Amino acid sequence: EKATVAFSIIRSLSAMVRKSNETFLEDLKAKNEKLEIANKNLREAQEELIRQERFSNLGKFSSMILHDLKNPISIIKAYAQMLKGDESLPERTIKYISNIHNEVERLNNLANELLDYSRGDIRLNMNIVNIDDFLSRLKTSIESRFANKNINLRFENSCKNPVLLDYERFFRVLMNLAENARKAMGKKGIFSISVTEDHSFITFIVQDNGEGMDKETMKHIFEPFYSSSKSGGTGLGMVIVKNVIEAHDGHMEVESTPGRGTKISITIPAK
After folding, report:
1. Does the fold of domain 126-269 match that of domain 1-120?
2. Whether 181 contacts 210, CB under 8 Å
3. 35, 118, 120, 132: which could form a disulfide with 63 (CB 3.0–4.6 Å)?
């Protein structure tokens, strides 16, 4: 009988020890999992800090260089404008000068975009803008960029009231989107920009039937220095587009299907 009691006690103690060990192991496993997650988060935070520091240093360095570059750009642009007005020059020369002027203007816009990014903020210069005039200038610039392609360009405007926006920055927004579309399209296709007014909001719809983007590319389009284009680029175009739109208290939506094209809707308040 004593042996039976002793056996029961030993069995009970063994069960308690086994249960205690299992609990300890489960607790240890849970703590290890938490530690791994914390370690992963710490590594990601460290990598992000290093990345931000590099961007900060790059921004300061870029800002100094770009300020120095803008002076010769402005001088070249001014001389090109003067030569364009010289009617005594041959037509062929005027065409070359016009090309120089357009490319210098594009370089100047790129410098301004990089300066905006390097400063980390957008300083808007708001103006009352007539959308018909705005689209007319935009059409001229886009036609120049699409000149070597058989692209059907369409511009529509149903907004009859003036709009308050930063003319030059919003112009660059739409030129950036047009440039992205040009890179995504083949020799033929349709590119369109339409503007509509709905109560207190203005909507710009930019659409193309180019190669489109898959879901993985869509995840990265607003990441700095990310570019999926084979034609290259700074990778800042969409970042700056988003920043300018948000500075106007607006928002944008991007829809894209591989092989069918991309549609971008930009909505801003009609102030």
Report:
1. no
2. yes
3. 118
Q: Where are the domains of the chain?
A: 1-120, 126-269
* R_g of the chain, CA atoms, integer Å: 30
Which residues make Cβ contacts (< 8 Å) with residue 206, sequence separation at least 6?
174, 177, 178, 181, 192, 193, 263, 264, 266
For the domain made up of 126-269, give the CATH fold.
Heat Shock Protein 90 (3.30.565)
CATH topology classification for 1-120: Helix Hairpins (1.10.287)
Strand segments, DSSP code E, in 133-243 are 150-157, 163-166, 188-198, 201-208
Highest mean pLDDT among 63-72, 82-91, 166-175, 216-225: 166-175
| Per-residue tokens: 57 | 């240093």
pTM of the model: 0.66
Which H helix or E strand runs over 30?
A: helix 2-84
At 184-198, the pLDDT tens digits run: 888 888 999 999 998
